[in-house]
Amino acid sequence: MYKQFRCVDGCSDCCKYRQYFPSVKYGKTGVLLLPHEKSKIEEIAQRNKLEIKILPRVGIGRNMMGSGPEEILMYQIMGRETQGDICPFLDTDSDLKAPNGGYRCTIYEERPLACRAYPVNESTNNRKPVLDTRCQFCTANLDIPEKGSLTRELTALKSIKRHVRIDRNTPVWRYATHIGEERDSEKFLPEGWLIQDI
Prior knowledge:
Blueprint: H1 13-16, E1 31-33, H2 35-47, E2 54-60, E3 71-77, E4 90-91, E5 104-105, H3 113-117, E6 120-122, E7 129-131, H4 151-163, E8 172-176, E9 192-196
Antiparallel strand pairs: 1-3, 2-3, 2-8, 4-5, 6-7, 8-9
């Protein structure tokens, strides 16, 4: 029987640690934001007097100068630490905790779709949903159930997929953040847009 997803007691890993994707040379990625979410998140940050850094993530098409995409499909909220970790909306200073005892998300009710979909991700090779194996809960529960326990998360993932459509004949661009651990810095590409194959 598949267990209902719930955060492991005391865990805030998904909000604290960022990963290199698709490889270390691109730098660490931030929390995925769709274009219609970007201004909302900026407004929330301003309202809460938080300094945030939002960078592009993925774009499509070839602009006239050939130096970047025509359209940005996704943005990303970068972590507040220099190596790219810790979401700026994660309250690590307060004694108030999340229901699981981990650090509290200060925008939980207004969080982006990517956060609502977590720990469900789209597989890079077959485009079917998979669980994030870095999630402490998911390491023990690696199958996506057909119905039930991850309904909200799967619905959020479907919403992201509806907004992000890429034609196989359209050039895809990925933004290199140049952010990560100091020990990896010599491997990073310069910050900016890079064209890639789909």
